[in-house]
Amino acid sequence: MSLGFLLDEQIPKWWRREINVRQPKVAVWRVGDPGAPPLQSSDLEILRWCETNNFVLVTNNRKTMAGELTKHVAQGRHVPGIFMVDPGANVREVAEDLSLVEGASFPNEFQDQIRYLPLG
User: Fold this and answer.
1) pLDDT > 80? residue 120
2) Considering the entire predicted model, what is its pTM?
3) Of the four, 28, 48, 53, 91, which is 20 to 30 A from 79 by CA?
4) Mean pLDDT of 19-29
5) Do residues 26 and 5 touch, judged by C-beta distance below 8 A?
6) What is the pLDDT of residue 80?
């Protein structure tokens, strides 16, 4: 399974670098990167971008993302998945989990679902 991961604005900027250092084969982009949704994009814009580009969203936006995912799916659209990061999560654990998800998941295993990181 070849998935990318999109970190939203709520995830600290430095996490992308740390994840790439620990898991260099995992594609990790961040909102605001060239080619990614621009900073201050709406949740719906981010979900549409993830759908088009086959990226799983990594966020800690517990307030609005579940509702936006429901609206997105109700429109007949899909996303490869959303991973909600625990606010106290350790970036090393998250990097390991993303590598596991990227390398060992079935196609569409997380489609239209919200899962939580770290996994263990």
Assistant:
1) no
2) 0.93
3) 91
4) 89
5) yes
6) 95
